[in-house]
Every structure is written in C-alpha cells, then in structure tokens.
C-alpha cells in the first residue's frame, strides 16, 4: 500500500499492512535537509526536501508543511524574528492594550511572502509525491492565532475578563483562516492541520465560549472544500474531549498527558480517528529500544481499527535513529 492508501484505509476502519506513522517532525526535517531551522522555516524547497528525506528514512506516512506558528501572524503585519536554530516568533505583539484591530492587514495568502511560501510547499510536495503520500497543509486555530497576535498571557487575561474586542478579532482571524486553508487545498493539500495549543490552557468553560464554535466552523469549511482536518491541541485536553466530540474532525492528535485509552473510548464509533500518544520527550528521546517498544506497543494495544500512532507532539531532533526506526517497525501488522 502507498501511504495515502494506507491512511485512507485506516480512517475508514479497513485492513492495512501497517498502522500509519503520523509522527510530527520539524527540527528533524531541517536537519535532514542540511539547513538551519531559520532556512527551513523560510524556504519551501528545503522544507520539501527534508520532508521527502524523512518520509523515506523514518517511514512517515504523511508529508506536510508545518514549521512554525508565525505564517499568518507575519501576514497580519507582525515583525517576525528568525533565530538560527529555534522557532520564529513575533518581536512585538500586534495587538496592544488599546485593542485596536484596524492595523491588522487583511491579507491575500498568495501575496504575503510567508503564507505564499507555505502554499508553494503544498504545491511542490504534491508534485513530488503524486498519490503516494497524503499532503498535510497547516493553519493556526482561532485561539492560537489570537495568542500569536496578542501574546499568550495577555490573551488569557482578556478571555477571563471577557474583553469586548474578542468576537471581532475572531471574525477577522476566521476570514483569513478560510482563505489560507483554501489556498493550500487548491495547491494540493489532502488535509489541513489546525494547531490550537492555547485551547489546552483555558479549560472547557472558556473553550466552549470562545473556541469551540470557531474550530467547528473552520473544520466544516475545510470539509466543504474537499479536504480533511487534523486537529492538534498540545497539552492535557482531557477536560475538552467531550466538547471536541461535537466536531467532525477526521484526526484528533492526543498529547501524552492524556489517558490514551480514555480518549479512544470516547471517540469509538465516531468519524474521528485518534492519533497518539507516546511522550516525545520520553523513551523515544532518552530511552532504550526496549522502552520504546513498551511505549509504542501500549498505544497500539489501546487502539481500535482507526487509531493512528505518533508522539503526542513534535519529535525532538536529538531522538536516536534507532528509536525512531524501532517505532516504525512496530507498526507493521
């Protein structure tokens, strides 16, 4: 089976020759492309080169354009800093304490350099892999993008204080989410990843008030455009799982802090495939081959016919090849 056939079959609950390996690589991709993180995040050709190398070397069953959360933030007008070997960040938040949203640029993703770079990555990946691999595009969730524009601590305070500017901000972000997602789908993405890590910090009450409807709306929109959705919320989302069942997300990433069996049980029989969830900074990074086997086998044995296997979040660049290859080998049925 090709990786695309394998993932499609698994999501449909059909037999596969191997459980899809859905590990998230970023720093490893830069390393395999032979470039700094800064270059990887700014040159789609290097991002594609590293993706292809990692898929072949480590048995990944998808290729994708994830690199950093500052693509949309740059397009909105922020000044982005690119450390040589770390994730880019906004030098100064675009939204300060006067809550003025008028200076947020309403951008065309094809005109902004950083969003265009990601769109070109989708296009080139599609050209390179044909129908062999699923291509995963990427956008920031509404809450995550709000945090990128405002600052995490500031946004958390604003949510708690129910600041009046928030609904308008989310409307602006959502409009741009749709444009960016569609451009990546048009360029060849089969899936759109939606990163919304901040949701794990606010609890179910605030997520239901400020995040749920927007996440559901972007998932519905992406489905309308003919693509699938992979929702990634880092951290302990145990308290959000019941709410997340209200969305027809195709793949839900589960970080290592969540009881994997509990998550699988909650979504059993739904349209959502659970992906996870060994600790990316645990055995896969620091442990022996035997410890890796124990962690991965636990995830496999906990799963159903639709479960996907991956680290709960990005696999660190220092993870030994032997551990990564052992993990992939265990997935063959």
Outline the structure in words.
With 333 residues, the chain is an alpha/beta fold. The chain has one domain: Alpha-Beta Barrel (TIM Barrel). Helix content is 48%, strand content 11%. It contains 16 helices and nine strands. The protein has helices at residues 3-11, 27-33, 37-42, 44-58, 71-76, 113-129, 142-150, 152-161, 166-186, 203-210, 212-224, 241-244, 260-267, 283-286, 289-302, 321-329, and strands at residues 63-64, 80-81, 89-90, 135-140, 191-195, 228-232, 251-253, 273-278, 308-311. The longest helix is centred in the middle third of the chain and has 21 residues, at 166-186. It is globular. The mean pLDDT is 97.
State the oligomer.
single chain
Mean pLDDT: 97
Output the helix-strand order: HHHHEHEEHEHHHEHHEHEHEHHEH
Strand fraction equals 5-15%
Q: How many helix segments? A: 16
Please give the CATH class: Alpha Beta
CATH topology: TIM Barrel
Q: Which class best fits the helix and strand makeup? A: alpha/beta
Q: Judging by the overall fold, what is the CATH architecture?
A: Alpha-Beta Barrel
Helix content: 40-55%
- Number of self-contained structural domains: 1
The shape is: globular
Low-confidence stretches: none
Can you list the strand order of the major beta sheet? Answer: 1-4-5-6-7-8-9
Question: Quick one: biggest sheet?
Answer: 7 strands, parallel
**Gyration radius over CA:** 19 Å
In angstroms, what separates the terminal alpha carbons? Answer: 12 Å
β-strand number: 9
